[in-house]
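<purpose> Linking amino acid order to shape
<body> The protein record starts here
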Amino acid sequence: TAIWEETGNNVVSPKMAEPVKASPPTTFLLGCVKCASTSLFDMLLEREPRLCNGAALDAEPEFFNKEKHFFDYHADIESAMAGFPDYTEHFSSCPPESLAIDGTPNYFCDSHVPSIMHDVYANNGFD
């Protein structure tokens, strides 16, 4: 289990170069294109009040409210580690007791995603 220190609105991991802006998601909805993942995502949010999907950031398209596309856009661990604090900013509106969820179906289809996701979380203190 990671030991996190809260400093104002930031959460700091001892292994990170800079603090994350919020706790990262611990729930992921994986799928493929046109397999009803959006319908399932909407149903889960409606029925499970603890789920929080975060929000798109200022310059991002509206579909980033569901699909953050972080791990499929970063093909190597270095760029993913550098961008991780910005990724977590999507979830800064989620209450601390919530279960943050990223509903990017492409994570299922890109072969590099599982290892990048594992390494980023492990390097930031998540087991």
User: Anything to note?
Assistant: The two ends are 6 Å apart (CA to CA). The CA atoms of residues 14 and 26 lie 19 Å apart. Helices lie at 37-47, 77-89, 106-109, 113-123. The beta strands are 5-7, 10-12, 27-28, 51-52, 99-102.
